[in-house]
Amino acid sequence: MVLPVKVFEVRGLEGDPRDTLMGWREVEELEDEETQLVTEVIDLEQVEDTVTGVFTRDFMRERVYRRRTRMTPETEEAPFWIVPHEGRHFLVVMAPSVARGVKKMLSNHVAVKIGDILNVDVRESRIPSETLQRLHEGNPKATNLIWFDNVDIPSVNKLCLSGEGIADTGLYKDYMDHGMIWYVVFTSLAKGYTVGVTRSAVVTNFSKSTVDEYIAFIREDILKLIEG
Fold first, then answer.
1. What angle do CA 168, 170, 176 make, to 5 degrees?
2. 180-189 burial string, b = 16+ CB within 10 Å, else e?
3. Number of H helices, E strands in the chain
4. Is the dihedral of CA 141, 142, 145, 150 positive or negative?
5. What is the dihedral of CA 165, 170, 176, 181, to 10 degrees?
6. Is the alpha carbon torsion for 167, 127, 194, 99 positive or negative?
7. How many CB atoms lie within 10 A of CB 159?
8. CA–CA dist 142, 163 (Å, integer)
9. Which three-class secondary structure state does DSSP give residue 10?
10. Mean pLDDT over residues 136-162, rounded?
11. Which helix (H) or strand (E) holds 24?
12. Measuring CA to CA, how many Å separate 132 from each of 72, 169, 201?
């Protein structure tokens, strides 16, 4: 199972966030007076120094039954973690970062709402292109794919390198002269996970792992890459 997360920085957090998040709930009554759409935080708990919970939201979705379209309620869930790291706080949200398939709840939506509930400043995290460059060049043979953006070649928006030849190809240096690394897929030597990392701190695990193992990897290997 592919596990996508996005990491945000939380500024201005004071006290225990559980005091505000515990029991938080919003209800929208629909016109039929029988259906409620609920947005709430559930399964909130403290695990060592990390606060974890699940953000849930109800949606109405079209379904086709015997050639007739019906609107039915559906609940989506996004686990999240509020993690301290070297004097800072980060919000890790396990949800897609862009709309794909049928999922409606995106990581940015969850982050904004949690920021509103806590009355804190939630910001996009950034991993510098230079950091991704060092990540690749430190062990080129572990890199599976690289995307470049901000390309200065006319009519070209992005460039891509993939395959085993990345470590030896002269194209890498040529592409570095024309753009910036946006996305790297590499295999972690310490954990053996194959993960994709973007400059906006979207991290996708393509390897088999539990959620707890993956979040431990985020804490130990990804948060240190985020610029201060």
1. 110
2. bbbbbbbbbe
3. 5, 12
4. negative
5. 0
6. negative
7. 18
8. 10
9. strand
10. 92
11. none
12. 44, 18, 11
Q: Are strands 3-11 and 159-162 parallel, antiparallel or unpaired?
A: unpaired
User: Distance between CA 93 and CA 5 in Å, rounded?
Assistant: 5
Q: Determine which of 63-67, 146-150, 176-180 has the lowest per-residue pLDDT on average.
A: 63-67
Domain assignments of the chain as residue spans, ordered by start: 3-124, 129-199
Q: Phi and psi for 23 in degrees, rounded to 5? A: 80, 5
Pull the structure tokens for residue 178: 């024309």
Look up tokens 């869930």; give the residue: 77
The set of residues, in sequence order, having a beta carbon less than 8 Å from that of 8 and lying 6+ positions away, is 90, 91, 92, 93, 111, 122, 123, 124, 125, 201
What mean pLDDT is predicted for residues 75-88? 96
| Residue 21 DSSP one-character state | H
Segment among 14-18, 61-65, 113-117, 144-148 with least mean pLDDT:
61-65
Nearest to 197 by CA among 209, 188, 168, 137: 188
pLDDT score of 147: 96
Structure tokens at 205: 């695990």
Q: Which amino acid is at 146?
A: I
Q: DSSP string of 112-128?
A: HHHHHHHT-EEEE----
Q: Is the pLDDT of residue 101 over 60?
A: no
Distance, first Cα to last Cα, the chain:
31
CB 56 within 8 Å of CB 42: yes
